[in-house]
Design goal:
Blueprint: E1 2-8, H1 12-23, E2 28-31, H2 36-39, E3 47-49, H3 50-58, H4 63-68, E4 70-72, E5 74-79, E6 82-87, H5 88-92, E7 96-98, H6 101-111, E8 116-117, E9 121-126, E10 133-138, E11 141-152, E12 170-185, E13 195-198, E14 204-208, E15 214-221, H7 231-240, H8 244-249, E16 255-269, E17 272-273, E18 276-278, E19 284-285, H9 293-313, H10 318-345, H11 353-368, H12 370-381
Parallel strand pairs: 1-2, 1-11, 2-8, 5-13, 11-18
Antiparallel strand pairs: 3-7, 4-7, 5-6, 9-10, 10-11, 12-15, 12-16, 13-14, 14-15, 16-19, 17-18
Helix pairs in contact: 1-6, 1-9, 9-10, 11-12
Bound molecules: adenosine-5-diphosphoribose (APR) and P-hydroxybenzoic acid.
Length: 385
């Protein structure tokens, strides 16, 4: 088999790239190691930047998002119970869409059959500096696909980044000494807007999936086990970290999903190796504070898609030559914002009294300065792609 582009991974990055290429007459196939229903079982964040909304619209994947998603005009910040609203519409004239990223993946999967191969095992990439090809096993047989380009959209633990020679790639990383315990519950959200809360007991986030389904998080220490968190313990801890009126208004119920996620910042450089490109979580990880993971994956593949279309259709290499430096510029800015939000709002085990005063002062500065709020809003709604 010969095809122009082989995409590894059918998460949001791979599916969006596949659709962009398909719509522009570039022949592509997606190889995914898991089954489709497994991919859809992963619960992810729920805030979509407007640039990503427009990208999804442009490939025909926005219909259900507009019908069921909620347009949010701002967020609330809370610091030891003091509240501050950040009004995106007033500050920067933009909004975000609150819609589950798992639903985005479902909408992308429903778009078209495309060429997608699920349960592709032992995917290996070969000769990406010369005449690239990919091998994989399916139903007990080994297959080979020759191609012009390979797109590594296979997430943080995928095979593509690991296939690059060690000396050719630099990894930048920070692992945070805590995690987020998340609960999904069919109760109405406590607040119309998301609440990002700092508290001396740790960070808390009130998010939502719809007017009847809430998603809440609390910061937990390294090594905590989900089995030790009964629903009651979770609700008690969440309420303690919010201001009294919000805590009072909180509707609680049984959890339909409960899990702990680690927090990490990670960037690989560069993101092009001959005819191999990395995009999405294969290239970078952000801590979830600010919900940039899917949004960054969307901007990567918007730029990669345009570059590959240019290379395959117009036979121009300008786009692919510029890919790595163009996407990294935006990636580092989203990394900075996610790291900053994380640093401002979490309790760090080795923080000194001075560090705590700095966090408090940062919050007071935001509360008092329209310019500081504009900077937060500009980054939260998403920098231009
Ligand atoms: N071979 C084939 N497929 C693989 C391999 C492999 N060796 N390794 C991983 N995959 C698949 C995974 O099973 C997964 O379905 O690649 C896909 C990667 O998907 P994601 O991890 O969702 O990464 P990405 O598409 O970059 O999405 C980025 O979107 O859902 C949000 O917050 C999430 O930050 C994430 C963002
Ligand atoms: C979520 O809804 O799951 C969510 C929202 C905002 C974040 C992180 C997660 O910053």
């Amino acid at each position: 088999m010969r095809i122009q582009v082989v995409i590894i991974g059918a998460g949001p990055a791979g599916l969006t790239l596949g659709r962009l290429l398909e719509l522009n007459g570039v022949d592509a196939v997606i190889l995914e190691q898991r089954r489709g229903d497994y991919v859809l079982s992963r619960i992810r964040a729920g805030v979509i930047e407007w640039g990503a909304v427009e990208l999804l619209d442009s490939i025909g994947a926005g219909r259900r998002m507009h019908a069921e998603g909620l347009v949010h005009h701002g967020i609330e910040m809370s610091f030891d119970g003091d509240r501050q609203r950040v009004d995106f519409t007033d500050l920067v004239g933009k909004q975000v869409m609150v819609y589950g990223q798992t639903e985005v993946t479902r909408d992308l999967m429903d778009l078209s059959e495309g060429k997608r191969i699920y349960e592709a095992e032992a995917v290996e990439i070969h000769d990406f500096d010369g005449s690239p090809y990919v091998t994989y096993r399916k139903d007990g047989q080994t297959h080979r696909i020759d191609c012009d380009f390979i797109a590594g959209c296979d997430g943080f633990h995928g095979v593509t980044r690991k296939s690059v020679p060690r000396g050719a790639i630099v990894n930048y990383e920070r692992v945070y000494p805590f995690g987020w315990l998340g609960v999904l519950s069919d109760v109405p959200p406590v607040s119309e807007e998301l609440i990002y809360a700092h508290h001396e007991r740790g960070f808390a986030l009130c998010s939502q999936r719809s007017l009847t389904r809430s998603r809440y998080y609390v910061q937990v220490q390294e090594g905590e086990k989900v089995e030790d968190w009964s629903d009651d313990r979770f609700w008690d801890e969440l309420r303690r970290r919010l201001n009294p009126e919000t805590a009072e208004a909180m509707k609680t119920g049984s959890s339909i999903e409960k899990s702990i996620a680690p927090l990490r910042s990670f960037v690989a450089e560069p993101l092009r190796f001959g005819k191999l490109f990395l995009a999405g979580d294969a290239a970078h990880i952000v801590p979830p504070t600010g919900a940039k993971g899917l949004n960054l994956a969307m901007s990567d593949v918007a730029i990669l898609g345009a570059a590959l279309i240019e290379a395959c259709v117009e036979k121009s290499t300008a786009g692919i030559n510029a890919y790595s430096s163009r996407v990294l510029d935006r990636i580092w800015k989203s990394e900075r914002f996610s790291w900053w939000m994380t640093s401002l709002l979490h309790t760090f085990p080795d923080n000194t009294e001075f560090d705590r005063r700095m966090q408090r002062t940062e919050f007071e500065y935001i509360a008092a300065s329209r310019v500081a709020q504009q900077s937060l809003a500009e980054n939260y709604v998403g920098l231009p792609i």
